[in-house]
Amino acid sequence: MNVTIEFLGGLDALVEKQKEVKTTLPKEITHLKHLIIWIKENLMKSRQEEFVTNELQIRPGIMVLVNEIDWALLDEENYEIQQNDRIAFLSSLHGG
Amino acid sequence: MSILCENCKTKRAVFLRPKNGSKVCKECFIELFEEEVHETIQKFQMFEPKEKIGIGASGGKDSTALIHVLTKLKEKYKYENDFVLISIDEGIHGYRDDSLETVKRNQLFYNLPLEIVSFKDLFGWSLDDIILNLGPSNSCSYCGILRRQALDLAAQKISVKKLATGHNANDAAETVLLNFLRGDSVRISRSSEFIINDQNDFKRCKPFIYAYQKEIVAYAYFNKLDYFSTECPYAVNALRGKPRIFLNDLERVHPSGIIDIIDSGQLFALPDSSIKPKIQKCQKCGAVSSQNLCQACILLEKLNKSKPKIEIEIEKK
Ligand SMILES: [Zn+2]
Ligand SMILES: [Zn+2]
């Protein structure tokens, strides 16, 4: 599955200043809940706690958008990732 | 599987508003958000006709969104107000220089005048120098004290009597909560005021007081606004302590909690007769102060003792 992942609103600081990552996901990463853990484990070297909580939920205050649609309208972490999805993580916690 | 906008009932909903749980399309969200800011401005009579309004511009999401909304509202509702951007250069190398570039791009884009005042020029010290001298532990409090003073001085310099800032509902709720935790009953009621009357001839207002942080960020996102989101190097981390984490968790399970906290703060407003600090003028710089010397002058005195060779001139009005 090919996807584009965006880190916006200051989250790029957690992934070595990459605002956009184009990648091919491993087969087992099928839903957003898997993707979140995959990002934490593969793209982040530090400050993971600013992205996910101890329960591996996305940190409240970070919006997730799939193709510019709020994931709250797409079943949130149970959304099934589609080919060429553009998945944006947008922080309202960073900067000011 | 796609959901229709609850407002126009024609376009696809793309955003679930944390404020009220409604599902709206991009166009409706932008319009509703702007209308609500307009209502806040009208309800609290934030702008007097013909009054020149300063907008505190940091390059960050809140102030950038504020500039965008006010520019649109001015056109739509024919506000009889001119806007001027005011930026503070605290002197934070590699951070403020970059965010000021964002402000300058926005200044050109919105075609507004811009006044930049720096800590170094006003006080003789940049924040970087202050922290070299006093250490990093209270950096945000030093910065806050001097920013306040710097904004007042900048506003006086360009004869602006009112300053609009991008403070939002989450900021206000956080302030109320912090004051509760500190047991500061006088401040609890003051922290949620919409227009803070600092001095007889200078007022601040907060058009975003009822706007959720998340909605401001979504508004900036859907409008593709150019804002700066790097964390200040002196701010320890983005989560900024337990109250902020608590508020974000609260918002997730009980969205109206943010506004409820602000409203609670207002209900605590103390009668005039109760123990409000006596307001007087700072003996050194003339700023409004609750003591003989204002906090900015106390801080500068401490700094100049630590490094007496530098001559300090505090601008007087
Ligand atoms: Zn609509
Ligand atoms: Zn003073």
TrEMBL record, chain A:
<protein>
    <recommendedName>
        <fullName>Ubiquitin-related modifier 1 homolog</fullName>
    </recommendedName>
</protein>
<comment type="similarity">
    <text>Belongs to the URM1 family.</text>
</comment>
<keyword id="KW-0833">Ubl conjugation pathway</keyword>
<keyword id="KW-0963">Cytoplasm</keyword>
<comment type="function">
    <text>Acts as a sulfur carrier required for 2-thiolation of mcm(5)S(2)U at tRNA wobble positions of cytosolic tRNA(Lys), tRNA(Glu) and tRNA(Gln). Serves as sulfur donor in tRNA 2-thiolation reaction by being thiocarboxylated (-COSH) at its C-terminus by the MOCS3/UBA4 homolog. The sulfur is then transferred to tRNA to form 2-thiolation of mcm(5)S(2)U. Also acts as a ubiquitin-like protein (UBL) that is covalently conjugated via an isopeptide bond to lysine residues of target proteins.</text>
</comment>
<dbReference type="InterPro" id="IPR012675">
    <property type="entry name" value="Beta-grasp_dom_sf"/>
</dbReference>
<comment type="pathway">
    <text>tRNA modification; 5-methoxycarbonylmethyl-2-thiouridine-tRNA biosynthesis.</text>
</comment>
<dbReference type="InterPro" id="IPR016155">
    <property type="entry name" value="Mopterin_synth/thiamin_S_b"/>
</dbReference>
<dbReference type="Pfam" id="PF09138">
    <property type="entry name" value="Urm1"/>
</dbReference>
<dbReference type="InterPro" id="IPR015221">
    <property type="entry name" value="Urm1"/>
</dbReference>
<dbReference type="GO" id="GO:0002098">
    <property type="term" value="P:tRNA wobble uridine modification"/>
</dbReference>
<keyword id="KW-1017">Isopeptide bond</keyword>
<dbReference type="GO" id="GO:0034227">
    <property type="term" value="P:tRNA thio-modification"/>
</dbReference>
<dbReference type="GO" id="GO:0032447">
    <property type="term" value="P:protein urmylation"/>
</dbReference>
<keyword id="KW-0819">tRNA processing</keyword>
<feature type="cross-link" description="Glycyl lysine isopeptide (Gly-Lys) (interchain with K-? in acceptor proteins)">
    <location>
        <position position="96"/>
    </location>
</feature>
<dbReference type="GO" id="GO:0005829">
    <property type="term" value="C:cytosol"/>
</dbReference>
<feature type="modified residue" description="1-thioglycine">
    <location>
        <position position="96"/>
    </location>
</feature>
UniProtKB/TrEMBL annotation, chain B:
<keyword id="KW-0820">tRNA-binding</keyword>
<dbReference type="GO" id="GO:0005524">
    <property type="term" value="F:ATP binding"/>
</dbReference>
<keyword id="KW-0694">RNA-binding</keyword>
<keyword id="KW-0963">Cytoplasm</keyword>
<dbReference type="InterPro" id="IPR011063">
    <property type="entry name" value="TilS/TtcA_N"/>
</dbReference>
<dbReference type="InterPro" id="IPR014729">
    <property type="entry name" value="Rossmann-like_a/b/a_fold"/>
</dbReference>
<dbReference type="GO" id="GO:0032447">
    <property type="term" value="P:protein urmylation"/>
</dbReference>
<dbReference type="InterPro" id="IPR032442">
    <property type="entry name" value="CTU1_C"/>
</dbReference>
<comment type="function">
    <text>Plays a central role in 2-thiolation of mcm(5)S(2)U at tRNA wobble positions of tRNA(Lys), tRNA(Glu) and tRNA(Gln). Directly binds tRNAs and probably acts by catalyzing adenylation of tRNAs, an intermediate required for 2-thiolation. It is unclear whether it acts as a sulfurtransferase that transfers sulfur from thiocarboxylated URM1 onto the uridine of tRNAs at wobble position.</text>
</comment>
<feature type="binding site">
    <location>
        <position position="166"/>
    </location>
    <ligand>
        <name>ATP</name>
    </ligand>
</feature>
<feature type="binding site">
    <location>
        <begin position="56"/>
        <end position="58"/>
    </location>
    <ligand>
        <name>ATP</name>
    </ligand>
</feature>
<dbReference type="GO" id="GO:0016779">
    <property type="term" value="F:nucleotidyltransferase activity"/>
</dbReference>
<protein>
    <recommendedName>
        <fullName>Cytoplasmic tRNA 2-thiolation protein 1</fullName>
        <ecNumber>2.7.7.-</ecNumber>
    </recommendedName>
</protein>
<dbReference type="InterPro" id="IPR035107">
    <property type="entry name" value="tRNA_thiolation_TtcA_Ctu1"/>
</dbReference>
<keyword id="KW-0547">Nucleotide-binding</keyword>
<keyword id="KW-0819">tRNA processing</keyword>
<comment type="pathway">
    <text>tRNA modification; 5-methoxycarbonylmethyl-2-thiouridine-tRNA biosynthesis.</text>
</comment>
<dbReference type="InterPro" id="IPR000541">
    <property type="entry name" value="Ncs6/Tuc1/Ctu1"/>
</dbReference>
<dbReference type="GO" id="GO:0002143">
    <property type="term" value="P:tRNA wobble position uridine thiolation"/>
</dbReference>
<dbReference type="GO" id="GO:0000049">
    <property type="term" value="F:tRNA binding"/>
</dbReference>
<feature type="domain" description="Cytoplasmic tRNA 2-thiolation protein 1 C-terminal">
    <location>
        <begin position="280"/>
        <end position="311"/>
    </location>
</feature>
<keyword id="KW-0067">ATP-binding</keyword>
